[in-house]
Write a structure and sequence with these properties.
Layout: E1 4-9, E2 23-27, E3 32-35, H1 41-47, E4 57-59, H2 65-68, H3 70-80, E5 88-92, H4 96-107, E6 120-124, E7 131-133, E8 136-142, E9 152-158, E10 161-165, H5 173-179, E11 184-188, H6 202-208, E12 217-220, H7 224-227, E13 236-237, E14 242-245
Length: 246
């Protein structure tokens, strides 16, 4: 069975190009999951006609709002409006549950008294080893990004395919390990030329492209500067609503 990947949100933190924040929806043989779920993700899903109740899992790379800030909105709506009954698994880096509870309470003061009426499972994943999440094998690796976000890059085995994603990071040997031989490698490409601490730019991605043997590479999380050059690079560049089949 084919695995499909939809870039529900392909933007950076700040809505460059009018794009939604990171949300990568994957449909495998037995489950539907999102890799990252930025603050705008419920809006993006609704615009593209996708019910958030259809998600079986969310896998978070790190704890910056443009990658995880949509989770509290999903949980609140699941309890109040969407009347979710489907189980949901949320997997991510260490300290995930405590930090997400803090973020939810900051966004919705008083929500700590609310209890989900659907099965909700939190999975905190240690980098460097595989974790079973539903029918997926998820292997996070340490990323080089803002330390307080507990950053990781992730490699997900689903339906006999491998989807790899850098999250936000500089290039490291661990990121190369995530990408190696993947059916799809999704790489953030924040700037075209400008070097930025804790992020990738195009010269870095281009220099590494042929070294890790991924079958397909798609660039995402692009700033205004990178978007201005996106049509000039040979790599595929994501846009909101892009669907690819592996």
């Amino acid at each position: 069975m084919a695995v499909t990947v939809r870039f529900v949100g392909s933007g950076d933190s700040f809505g460059s190009g009018g794009r939604f924040q990171t949300c990568i929806l994957v449909d495998g043989p037995s489950s539907r999951f999102a890799i990252d779920f930025g603050t705008s993700s419920l809006i993006a899903l609704a615009q593209q006609g996708i019910e958030h109740n259809s998600l079986d899992a969310i896998i978070l790379t790190h704890l910056h709002g443009d990658h995880c800030g949509g989770v509290p909105f999903l949980l609140i709506d699941a309890m109040l409006g969407a009347k979710r009954i489907r189980p949901l698994t949320i997997a991510g880096p260490r300290d995930l549950r405590r930090r997400m509870d803090q973020i939810r309470e900051a966004l919705f003061p008083g929500s700590r008294v609310m209890t989900p009426t659907f099965p909700l499972t939190w999975v905190e994943m240690e980098p460097g080893r595989p974790h079973t999440v539903l029918d997926l094998i998820v292997t996070p690796q340490p990323a080089r990004h803002t330390e307080e976000t507990n950053p990781t890059a992730v490699r997900v085995e689903v339906g006999g395919k491998v989807v790899a994603y850098t999250g936000d990071t500089e290039w490291t040997d661990e990121v190369a390990r995530v990408a190696r031989g993947a059916d799809l490698f999704i790489a953030e490409c924040y700037f075209y030329d400008k070097p930025v601490k804790w992020h990738l730019n195009y010269p870095t991605v281009a220099a590494q492209r042929d070294r890790f043997g991924a079958k397909r590479v798609i660039l995402t999380h692009m700033s205004r500067e990178m978007l201005a050059h996106a049509d000039a690079v040979p790599e595929e560049c994501a846009h909101d609503g892009l669907v690819v089949t592996l």
